[in-house]
Design a protein that fits this description.
InterPro entries: TAT_signal (IPR006311). It is built from 6 helices and no strands. The protein is mainly alpha-helical.
Length: about 160
C-alpha cells in the first residue's frame, strides 16, 4: 500500500501561506530589538524624577502657541491699521522663544521609554502638520535629534 503525496510544480500557486527567506530574515532581525524593548519595559524601575522630555514638550507647546498668537495679532494689526511698523516688536520674542524651546526639545534625551515614545509622537505630529519645516529646515537639527534618540535608547537600556 502506498501513500499518495501531492506534488506541486514550481508554476502552481501555493494555497498555504509561506514565509520566504527574506521575510524570515527580517523577522529574525527584529527579535533582538523586540527583546531589548520588552526587557527595558519590564525591568525599568520607575524614574525617581520625571522624564525631562515631558517638560520640554510642554515648554515647546506653550512657546508655539504664544508665537502663533503673536502672528495672529500682527496679521490683525496689518489688516485693521495698515501696520507698517517693526513686526519684530510683536513677533520677535515669541519666535525666538519657540526656536529655543524647539532646540531644547530635539536635543533632550529621554530617560524613560514612555518619554522617548512621547517625544517621537510629538515630533511626528509636527512632521505631519504645517509646522513640518521646523524639522526640515533647521541646520544641525537632524544630527541633534539623532544624537538625542541614541542617548535616549542608552538611557532606557536598549543600547549599551
Amino acid at each position: 500500500m502506498t501513500i499518495e503525496r501531492p506534488t506541486f510544480s514550481s508554476h502552481e500557486p501555493s494555497t498555504s501561506p509561506q514565509i520566504g527567506r527574506r521575510g524570515l530574515l527580517c523577522g529574525l532581525a527584529a527579535v533582538p530589538a523586540a527583546t531589548a524593548l520588552a526587557s527595558a519595559t519590564l525591568h525599568a524601575s520607575p524614574a525617581a524624577t520625571p522624564d525631562p522630555v515631558f517638560a520640554a514638550i510642554e515648554v515647546h507647546r506653550t512657546a508655539n502657541a504664544a508665537h502663533h498668537a503673536a502672528i495672529i495679532k500682527l496679521n490683525r494689526l496689518q489688516k485693521l491699521h495698515r501696520f507698517d511698523g517693526n513686526f519684530e516688536e510683536i513677533t520677535g520674542k515669541a519666535c525666538d522663544d519657540e526656536n529655543e524651546a524647539f532646540e531644547v526639545l530635539i536635543g533632550a534625551p529621554a530617560t524613560t521609554l514612555q518619554g522617548l515614545v512621547a517625544k517621537l509622537d510629538y515630533l511626528r505630529a509636527i512632521a505631519d502638520s504645517d509646522e513640518a519645516w521646523m524639522l526640515d529646515e533647521r541646520e544641525g537639527g537632524a544630527r541633534l535629534l539623532i544624537d538625542s534618540i541614541t542617548e535616549s535608547l542608552r538611557n532606557v537600556g536598549v543600547l549599551s
